[in-house]
Amino acid sequence: MEPALFFFWAFAAVTVVGAVGVVVMRQPIHSALFLLMSFLGVACLYVQAGAELVAAVQILVYAGGIMILFLYTIMLVNVRRQRTERYLHFQAIPALGFGFLFLLVVGGVVVNEARALAAKVPAADPKALATTVIDGVTVLGNTQAVGWMLYRDYFLPFEIASVFLLVAMIGAVVLGKRTMERFD
Amino acid sequence: MSQSFIHYFLVPLVKGLLTVVLVGLAAGVLTWIERRLLGRLQIRKGPNRVGPQGFFQWIADTIKLLFKEDIVPSRAEKALHLLGPLLLFTPAVVVLGLVPWGPNVTLFGVTTPLHAAADLNVALLLILAVSTIGVYGIILSGWASNSKYPLLGGLRAAAQLISYEVPMGLAVVSAILMSGSLSMVEIIEAQRKAGVWFVFPGLIAFFLYFVSGVAETNRTPFDLPEAESELVGGFHTEYSGFRWAVFFMSEYGNMISISAVATTLFFGGWLRPFPNVAWLGFLDVVPAFFWFAGKVFLFLLVYIWFRATFPRYRFDQLMALGWKTLIPISLGNLVLVAIAVLWGAAGLKVLGAVLVLLVAAGFFAVWRRPARPRTSTTMAATNVEVRA
Fold first, then answer.
1. Domain-embedded: residue B7
2. What local confidence, expressed as pLDDT, does residue B384 receive?
């Protein structure tokens, strides 16, 4: 097997095993760790697709920030061990059935699309993947390209989105403060 | 052996192993240096029995830790308890692998950069990303121990690392602005081209980076996650034997990583001082790797010096320092550096000169201030005795 293909399957396996682990595990903290594993697998896949900026940001934001806050919350709320309790008593069999149907439909669509794409588009050239052309200038990697897109071409939408996030954050702080004052 | 096998498999493997071994050895030697130096700073001797000047103390300690019983608390989460130290140690080594130690070297007919990982064009971002993974090791070992003090230590570590990641990231951005690249090698090359180490125009950024770095490595004065007087040992209370030693090695590994990144971003990495001044060319006698290692070593000494000098922060003080002081300063500094970069090549030099002059003026002002009546150490000691 080609090395690139071998690594693709390895990373894909890590991602899928992580994703399955998230839903299967009983302990919230184990689920969170499997989610982390899945994130790291996806980051590796991004690197293989020549999107190393997205990969680094994926680890930095999701693995480094959001997941740590998840863990923090889980540890604060659920310090004692969760009781081992079955939640899916009688739904298990219908759930499996519908899940399988869903898999068939989505899987069929994805495989068909991939076949059609593979027939049309030639195999990606690694050299072309490693560089990006902006305004006729070829630059290494895609950090610069993403920067130019965000801060020049789509400057206004980007800023509006960040203002939205700021508003949401201030709202959360205000709500949190109000409940805290009531309890004081 | 085919050429591609050597280039894509053998060389990276050797370099990776070299990095791991180097971190382990350096951690051992550093414990000895730290204990001796702390001894000098606290007017006592430190370990001086095993070997010349007590140098073999660290080997003796390693052997002791290797053969100690490895105790896992009975109700601990076994798998996560095992995973914790590893998750802390791995990122430290990976970060060190992403930092270039020197230019190309030729050994056994193979020419390769002295750099465990490839020269990625997002290396700096990846360093920030990978170093945040280390906090999982701390949180998990705190949680999996099934004990109160480790849990508290883990929670403190998580809050602390997330808070200080922000000023650290913003400080790193000014180095990116000055060099126009995220690649570590290109940042060094940019400092050669600019003819000035980025520490001068980035004086504030360097200060912020190093303070955040000390906080991220949980060293004094920010060692709250393992504050002995409050939490016994913090997140590693329930560890013993070699797994405890792995925590120790990761702490030193992280210190080395932070120092190595600071060296690369602000002190020209493996460049000699004043890389553009021709008559200083004789300095090139020292190989590039040793310039790099020497600079890193100086930072490590500063770490130890900090430990002997500063008392520990309180937790609210720590948070206030991070969010209310360091982050606003780093944002202001970013604007300053951006203006200098827009100005052009002269901008960096002017900003550097202004900052150095300001610091010098600050020192001068402190120095000129009428001194309080001085008491020698012996007198201070007698005073204490009298009061007692």
1. no
2. 47
Q: Which residues pair with B111 in a beta bridge?
A: B106
pLDDT at B381 (0 to 100): 47
Place of tokens 């009428």: B370
Low-confidence ranges of chain B (pLDDT < 50): 378-388
In whole angstroms, give the CA distance from residue B234 to residue B164.
19
Q: Would you state the CATH architecture of domain A1-80?
A: Up-down Bundle (1.20)
Closest CA to A81 of B13, B190, B76, B286: B76
Q: What residues make up the domain containing B299?
A: 72-368
pLDDT value of residue B195: 76
* Chain B contact set for A72 (CB, 8 A): 139, 155, 158-159
Query: Region A91-104: what's the mean pLDDT?
Result: 87
Q: What is the pTM of this model?
A: 0.82
Centroid of chain to Cα B361: 28
Q: What is the mean pLDDT of residues A107-134?
A: 74
The minimum CA-CA distance between A73 and chain B, rounded to whole Å, is 10
Task: Give the per-residue pLDDT at B70.
Answer: 80
Is B133 at the interface with chain A, CB within 8 A? Answer: yes
Amino acid identity, position A3: P
CA distance B80 to chain A (A): 9
Contact residues, chain A, for B135 at CB < 8 Å: 64, 68
Distance from CA of A33 to the nearest CA of B (A): 9
Residue B209: what pLDDT? 92
For residue A93, what are the CA distances in angstroms to A25, A40, A89, A101, B143?
Answer: 18, 32, 9, 13, 35
CB burial of B13-31 (b: ≥16 within 10 Å; e: otherwise) equals eebeeebbebbbebbbebb
Residue B5 falls within a domain, yes or no?
no
Nearest CB neighbour to A143, from listed B121, B135, B155: B121
Q: Provide the ipTM.
A: 0.75
* Chain B interface disruption, residue of A27, A54, A75, A80, most B CBs within 10 A: A75
Are B121 and A72 inside 8 Å of each other by CB? Answer: no
Domain residue extents for chain A: 1-80
What confidence score (pLDDT) does residue B193 get? 80
Question: Per the structure, how many domains does chain B have?
Answer: 1
Residue B131's closest CA among B240, B253, B307?
B253
- Partner A, chain B 70-99, Cβ-Cβ below 8 Å: 80
Q: Supply the pLDDT for residue A152.
A: 83
